[in-house]
Amino acid sequence: MKHSLSTQTVHAGPDGDAATGAVNVPIYQTSTFRQRGLGDNTGWEYARTGNPTRAALEAAIAQLEGGTHGFAFASGMAAIGAVLSLLKAGDRVLLSRTVYGGSFRILDKVFARFGVGWTLAEGEEPEAFERAFEEHPDVRAVLLESPANPLLAVTDLAAVAAVAKARGALVVVDNTFLTPYLQRPLALGADVVVHSATKYLGGHSDLVAGLAVTARADLAESLAFVQNATGGVLGPFDSFLLLRGLKTLAVRMDRHVANAEILAGRLGSHPAVARVWYPGLPSDPGYGTNRRQAAAGGGMVSFELAHGLDPRPFFRALRLVALAESLGGVESLACHPATMTHASIPADIRAKVGITDRLVRLSVGIEDAEDIWRDVDAALRAASTASGTRGGC
Fold this sequence. Notes:
Elements: H1 5-11, H2 52-65, E1 69-73, H3 76-84, E2 92-95, H4 101-110, E3 117-120, H5 126-135, E4 139-145, H6 157-165, E5 170-174, H7 179-182, E6 192-196, E7 210-214, H8 217-230, H9 236-247, H10 249-267, E8 273-277, H11 287-293, E9 300-305, H12 311-317, E10 322-323, E11 333-335, H13 347-353, E12 359-363, H14 369-387
Parallel strand pairs: 2-3, 2-4, 4-5, 5-6, 10-11
Antiparallel strand pairs: 1-7, 6-7, 8-9, 9-12, 11-12
């Protein structure tokens, strides 16, 4: 019997422990495994190569993403680094126009030293990717985010995947913002899906982890080799915590989305706000595409303060919402992308794509929506008062 995705989040992967009947997969906190004899083992040898707790997590995320092989890493960037390690000198990666600063940094500062280049697409539309392929015939992989960080721009994943595959390029989609509960990129043509599982999949701001999933046997073999050779694997305790987080993914995402829709709507009419980005709003330019390929707009909302407002009083006035890096936890967080998540991107590129000093990114938590709104509204009023302008509703 095929169950709904919300049920699968509770039971994905090995459902408990067959050896003992425990309803949860145990934490196999061991670095090595006793061998029965030379060339004779129980299927486990050394924990960098494989650990039963990690293997259960990898099976779970593969099932949820509709893939066949999952890989768990010590961070989201370790997962992205492993996927980029499939490339060779002379290859080029085509990136979403707005992309997470860490993804940009690893290409610009690390892989560039090994002869792997990068290019930013000039827009989200498939034609922008077409033009980039024509200008750069050495593109061998496309790394996409949809919605993208931090402006939540939406890319037609199926259309861009078709463009890339016609040229033999690998399609990698970072699905951190929506998770497999809201969007499944493999079904839209992606070759690999990556996650910062630190965020929504873990959901409680208590672990750092990364995941990668593929349905291609050749890529799975290559990723398994890289994972074992480089060794940036996720430990058994964090694997256990992440498995626990997955069990509540559906109910948490439903609340994140419901709260984000309320805040996005109210921010759009606030006099201290110049613009709101949220793909779940019908007025958002990416709404139609996102609605075709995803179940909802997610729990992230970005907005730009009105002209002349200084973001510092806004962040100082927040009480319930924390000014902090990261996202996707049960608590609401506010971020200043220009000085935090995207500080590693040169200022001229930030300005070109619209990451201004007045941009605020909210990770809307699962608290009561009215409590979150009162805190954000009070902070907006404080920013308005500090600048000598009228604010509030």
